[in-house]
Amino acid sequence: MRLPLKTLPGKEGAPPVLVVFVALASLALSGCVMQPDVSATALTADGEKIEVPLTTQPVPVTDGTITIPLFRFAPWDMGKDKPKALVFNFIVEFKPGSVPTSILIEDFTEMPILQIYRDDKPKLLRNTWGAVSATFAPQDEHVKWVLTLDNNVRVYRFTIKLTDGTTHVLLKPVFVPGNMKQYMRAELGLTS
């Protein structure tokens, strides 16, 4: 048995697929597409609660003068016959005219607060500063969280002093899913 195909009034002869496509296209163009917004609450070393977007896309942190568009960690090849380690790399952007005199980056997730990187003579290139940390062995206090299996959130504190005498403190939360840590352990040669 074959059912007759219905068309919209005034659209006699228009193929039903075309009608559906036009309806979907107008829905997409109308701005009604919703994006999921998922976050978690994390505590810092001093007990402050912060909201952390649970996304794999980096979310820039800014206070209007300073922006942290990039903060990441990755396995680092130490050379032939040497174990791999982890490094952090960062990019910090400054509002034109803002000049840093020092930049301190710390793991502010729990006590003890651990220094990740310090630059007491930062140099800017087009209002941007970037750096790569020293290497950390996976068992090091700074990165031993990579050895755990669960999802977790790390919170990094950027304390930046400017030539105008102001101090800017920005917290950069980073969601670290368990599967990312599993990948990193494999890259570090910690799984069999």
What does this structure look like?
This protein has 192 residues and is mainly beta. It folds into 2 domains: 1-34, no CATH class; 40-187, Immunoglobulin-like (Sandwich), CATH 2.60.40. The protein contains 2 helices and 10 strands, in the order αββββββββββα. It has helices at 16-29, 178-187, and strands at residues 39-43, 49-53, 61-62, 66-76, 85-94, 100-107, 114-119, 128-132, 152-162, 167-176. β3 (61-62) and β4 (66-76) form a beta hairpin. The model is unreliable at 1-36 (pLDDT under 50).
- Biggest beta sheet summary: 4 strands, antiparallel
Q: Could you tell me the CATH topology label of the largest domain.
A: Immunoglobulin-like
Tally of domains: 2
Unreliably modeled segments: 1-36
Mean pLDDT: 80
Oligomer designation: single chain
CATH architecture heading of the largest domain? Sandwich
Series of H and E elements: HEEEEEEEEEEH
Mind telling me the C-alpha Rg? 24 Å
Helical percent range?
A: 10-25%
Could you say which structural class the secondary elements and strand pairing correspond to?
mainly beta
DSSP E strands, number:
10
Number of helices: 2
Q: Per the principal axes of the C-alpha atoms, what is the gross shape?
A: globular
Strand order across the biggest sheet? 3-4-5-8
CATH C-level name of the largest domain = Mainly Beta
Distance linking N and C termini: 59 Å
Strand content: 35-45%
